[in-house]
Amino acid sequence: MTLLELEKVDVFYGDLQACFGVTLHVDEGETVAIVGANGAGKSTILRAIIGLTPARGGAQRLAGESLVGLPCDVIARKGVALVPEGRRLFGSLSVEDNLLLGAAHARKGPWSLDRVYALFPAMREFRHQTAGELSGGQQQMVAVARALMTNPRLLLCDEISLGLAPKIVADIYACFDSISAAGVAIVVVEQDVGRARAASNRLYCLLKGKVTLASPSREATMEAIAAAYFGGAAA
Asked: What's the pLDDT tens digit per position in 170-196?
C-alpha cells in the first residue's frame, strides 16, 4: 500500500525554483533512497514533505490525505519524522532528555526508551551524558532514536552518513531492517550511491531539481545511476 505520494511537486526558495515537477512514492514499510550531487534538490524534497519549505505546486499525500498547506507540526503529528542533516540535538541536555523530547507529542506506537536502547545498545551506556559531549556517530544514533520516539509512519533521513566513520555508518544502516520490520517506511537522502542502493528497495536520482531516474534498487545499474547523476546517456 502506498504511504507517501508526491505528484509534480515544485519547490521554491523565494523566487528561486529548486525542484521541478518531482513525482515519487513510498510504500508502507519500504526504504526509498534519493541520490544526487550537492544542490540536486534532495534535502529540499525532504523539507517539502515535512512542511519546512512548502511546495508551491503539485500534490502531496500521506496515506491518501493531502499534506498541502499543512504546517510542519501538524505533518509531524500525522506520522512523519525528520532526522536532519547536522543532527540538531539539544547539546546541553542529556541523551535521554533529548529522546524524551521526541516522545513529548508522540503518536501511539511501539517505540519507547527501551525499544530504542535495544536498537542502539551502546546508547544506553551514555544516556546520562549531555548530547554535546558525544562523538558524531553517537549523536547520529541519538538523532535517529529521537525521531523514532515520535512513533512515525515515515522516517526521513537527511545525509545521515555525512562526516562519519564507515563502521559507524554501517552500524546505523544495519538498523534499517529492524525499523522497517516495525512498519516504518524510510526515505534516505544519501551521497554514497552504493550504500543507498544496497540499503533501499527503490531509488530515485535527482539532477538540478528533476527526477532523472526512478527504479527498483536492484535493477538500477551503476552505469544508469551515473548517467542520471551527472546527466548523460547510460551505456
From this structure: 888 999 999 999 999 999 999 889 999
Strand positions, DSSP E, the chain:
2-13, 16-27, 31-35, 57-62, 65-66, 80-83, 154-158, 185-189, 202-207, 210-216
3-state secondary structure of 1: coil
Q: Which residues of 41-67 are buried (b: 16+ CB within 10 A; e: fewer)?
A: bbbbbbbbbbbebbbeebebbbeeeeb
Determine the Cα–Cα distance for residues 55 and 105; give it in Å rounded to an integer. 25
**In sequence order, what DSSP letters do the residues of 146-164 get, joined into one string?**
HHHTT--SEEEEESTTTT-
pTM of the model: 0.93
User: Domains, the chain, ranges and CATH?
Assistant: 2-90+154-230 (3.40.50.300)
- Here the cell at position 119 is 536498537
Determine contact, residues 127/135, Cβ cutoff 8 Å. no
**Which residue bears the cell 517539502?**
48
Cα(81)–Cα(58) distance, rounded to whole angstroms? Answer: 21
Burial of 160 (0-12, 13-18, 19+ CB in 10 A): buried
